[in-house]
Amino acid sequence: MRFRFPEMLALAVVCTGTCGCTRERRDLSDVPPSASIPRLTPSQYDRQYQSNAYAMSQGKHLFEWFNCVGCHAHGGGSIGPALMDADWIYGDDPQSIYQTILGGRPNGMPAFNGRISQTQAWQLVAYVRSLSGQASKSASPSRSDSLQLKEAEQSQPRQQMQPAAPASSQHQ
Amino acid sequence: MNHSALHPAGLHAAQIAHLGLTFLIVSCAVYVMVIGVLLAVLIRRRRRGSDPNTLSRSERRALIGVGVAVGITTVVVTALAISEFVTRRSLEQDTGEPLHVRIIGHQWWWEVQYSSDSGAGQVQTANELHIPVGRPVQLQMTSQDVIHSFWVPNLQGKRDLIPGRTTHISLVADQPGRYEGQCAEFCGFQHAKMRIVVDAQSPADFDAWRQVQLQSAREPVSDLERRGKQVFENSTCVMCHAIQGSLASGTIGPDLTHVGSRSSIAAGTLPNTPQTLVLWIANPSAVKPGTAMPSAALSGEDLRSLATYLASLK
Amino acid sequence: MSYPEENEAALHRTWSERPGWLGWLMAVNHRTIAKRYLVTTLLFFVAAGIMALLMRLQLARPENTFLDTDRYSQLFSMHGSVMMFLFAVPIMEAVGVYLVPLMVGARNIAFPRLNAFSYWIFLFGGLMFFAAFLLNTGPEAGWFSYVPLAGPDYSPGKRTDFWAQLITFTELSALVVSIEIIVTALKMRAPGMSLDRIPLLVWAEVVTAFMVIFAMPAVMLSSTFLITDRLVSTHFYNPAGGGDPLLWQHLFWFFGHPEVYIIFVPALGMISQIIPTFARRPVVGYLGLVMALVITAFLAFGLWVHHMFATGLPPLGMSFFTAASILIAIPTGLQIFCWIATLATGGQVRFATPLLFVIGFFFTFIIGGLTGVWLGSTTLDSQLHDTYFVVAHLHYVLIGGAIMPLFGAFYFWFPKVTGRLLSESLGKWNFWLFFIGFHVTFFPMHALGLDGMTRRIYTYGADRGWQELNLVATVGAFILAISVLVFIVNVIVSLRRGALAGDNPWNASTLEWATRSPPPPYNFQFIPVVESRDPLWQKGERRHVVGLSNEVRSVLITAIHDAQPDHTTTFPSPSLWPLLSALATTGLFVGSIFTPWAVLWGSIPVAVGLIGWFWPSHRETEINRRLEIKPESPAR
User: Fold this and answer.
1) From the CA of B114, how many Å to the nearest CA of chain C?
2) What is the complex's ipTM, to 2 decimals?
3) What are the pLDDT digits (tens) for C411-462?
4) What DSSP character marks residue A162?
5) CA distance linking residue C108 with residue C97, whole number of Å
């Protein structure tokens, strides 16, 4: 019997597609709220949140728990602007969204500074960006165990950001 | 042994234990007999019998033996099945007016609601079930997320909490005491640390407890407690927790109106003292990795006052 | 038996595999493929065993920090999945793939290329699963993946998807092997081997194969629904969308309960071969044993709700499953009594290692069977379900009931497979360490379950009082591990220096012992004619079949009930297409974890592979046409 396992193993590793290391990490630690806005490098943010399935899944739960749906619905917007489209008033980069959530914005976006931890905020940022298809398909959340109100985030086509002027955002 | 099925403290668990004893005795007898025959057969020295008549006679005897053994087996298992049905029927009989309690499973804590009889208002607590001794308790259970399972071995068997369905189980305690159990269906990261405690009290004590639980939160008395209440209302706590009679009315996490009266925190993971409260609040994911509760950025003094305030909410 | 040389040389030419590494990839001989299965499944067994040792290390002390919750969940999910899907079922089928053709007097298993395909699918599925585990994408929701925990909302990422796809791989592999076993046992038996002369292991494998065919589709369906829930937002298991988490449980356990019998029943067949050999007499109660196997298989499909007794289903319905769960003790009991009767009426019992393991089966499995009756009672189960009592029970029945006989089978048939006997002294060490280690590990778990210790917990409080028994169990687990090490050492040493076995070292009675050890590529020089249930114990010269061509892979097909010769057919020669088709299928399966389009685009290589596989070869068609006897031409 001659063993072919090293070759077989290599084949299987290649076969399993995208590396699971980043996508599948479950980081169960939590960073408390901070007075100043932390700076994450793009690769740090990407590795820990945007490419991480657990982080976006948590973000999705928080989006429900913290009643973001009250103003933004499930991404389609009502009182607050839609989050699944290409219009970003204050920018779609993670740092801007983080600032939006923690510092609030004009026309009714509350400031959550001190109310949610940094980890939770970044999870929300990653989730919000997945609403417009900015996250990889395999890491984005799938459908939730509730009434189906929209397509799952993993099915969202990627939206190219278009900046929208604040004055024109009369949300009706 | 306050988490053992072999130490029943209620009618249901007692009947189950009794049935279990029956099964145990029968099983031991069967095992000893079968293994006994096997050993006797193996140990016996014998000649290599070459007479075909001898062989077929012993084979006939052996087949008769097999038939008898199968017959005995059939009778025994039928008897066991009948005793199980009889026990189950008797377990379904309930005497007395039951107390209705709703339990909702969450990852990784138990939400406990006492429905209001006679318009007295609803009791909302977590991870702890108080029941009056001698009165049957009807649990209506469901889950908010994944399947959990309610199990307090001293009192009753277990029942799953299934999202989208309501399950029921009845239990009754014969004697006062604290009976512990834990979630019995794998439910994620902290399935191992999702304990439930049933505190069986005399009817008078139970009524007194219930009266206290129906009231709004005790107002802070000392300066430290007042500071703690302020800290509570100004940090992450209010996003998820409620304290009746204060500004906090979050519905995501356990109700904290009477958190000081509970014997443990974090679903039985830590005993309930100001020190453990500090430990828990400062870094919940160190105590229960995976918990949804975030850490709060509180300094030593703020943290201490918060813990003192919460401990005062009896 | 003498072996005329020219006949043998022609048979060798016709039936040998192609040489070289290409020939290795093209192999279609059932024994070659079975040996591959055996080696691969044993490697998976060792891997899953190491995972169990890691878990036992974590649980040896309360509030231990050796493994965190995520790693622990992955380990118990992997341990269960690998043991059930990649070890237990495939190895039992592998024993069948090796022995069934030999025992019925055939030259190969039915559908040899399909057999090769099944191995490649199994291997690729297993490698995919381990690769996923090493890349932190192993399953985390148990081997049974209950929804909603394993659903899209509570199991983010691709972990559960790899688990669900493993099911697809292993069930496809098991299904095709089952078809081969049934066809071989029913249509390729040596002339004269009527239904009541079929060896009991063959009966067991056939019954198991039928169970596979009826059970596997349920789990393939349920895992497919899970994949679609997770990938394309179906709502099979979502109450808010009209689905139900209990649908998963019903579909899974409809498969899951027969699954454990799929693992157990072949072991019953192995015992039925080993005991008569060492009791030196034919088995007592052959008809009863066959009926017991068949009845067990039927009853096995009527038990599944006993895994769901805690879900609050209506009591009347659950009573049916209690009755069936308790009733299945009867056919199992019948078999045990027949075996004891065989030992009682035989000659002086020979206590070789295979029999020691079978005796270990009696001591162990009967405990597991009895605790199974406890768990069949809804009342008792309400206390015992999902506790360490069930962990004890399942290991008692699976290890005691299936793995101990399997080890006995290893010691019994190793001489046939390799030509050398395993060392008896190492065998006795193997057995006693295994037996003691097993009971030390699992017996305390009965008490732990009764004391409130639930399953699948990565740690427990020091105030629970569970640490002593857990430590004992951990020590036992390491004793078990040492016994497996002794077995591996025994295999390695005996392969080189074991005593030469000859054709029939145990003086057994079935056909596989009538040929050389190891058998030549064509199994038997002449297909034997069978005139009794124990052909090798029958006095006088045995007849054999003549007239089969040695130039092509000619196989005699016989009638189902009395094995009268019906026609001959030509079996396929070695081919690379099964491997290529398996690679294509793997691509389709793995791709569909990530995108539904893989099902569409991935089916193109699969179609190419299958077309290549079935494309007729000119050379073989010419030979067949030349050998064909037409009605009007004179008989050859």
Assistant:
1) 21
2) 0.95
3) 999 999 999 999 999 999 999 999 999 999 999 999 999 999 999 999 999 9
4) E
5) 9
